[in-house]
Amino acid sequence: MFRDFFLGFIKIHILHHASKEPIFGTGIMEEIRSHGYKVSPGLIYPTLSNLERRGLILSEKRVINGKARKYYTITDQGRGVLAEAKEKIRELVEEVM
User: Which CATH number does 2-96 carry?
Assistant: First the structure.
């Protein structure tokens, strides 16, 4: 059950950072790990693909130092989902805490 909650938090975390600046897989993995979570490419990359398929983020391929990398930014639909999620989190925290 914790995994279900955890995945939801990861998705919100991805949307949050994609709303601030373009993100890439390894970078967001490091960011999430900095909070003490154990994440792997097998979790992050399918999650990024899923969020993109659902229209919440968009990818753009860039070549940096000769290396191709996908950068992701949030869409308008993603901003709406993130705003709704933040409101639900506020309500939940107020109730639970």
Answer: 1.10.10.10
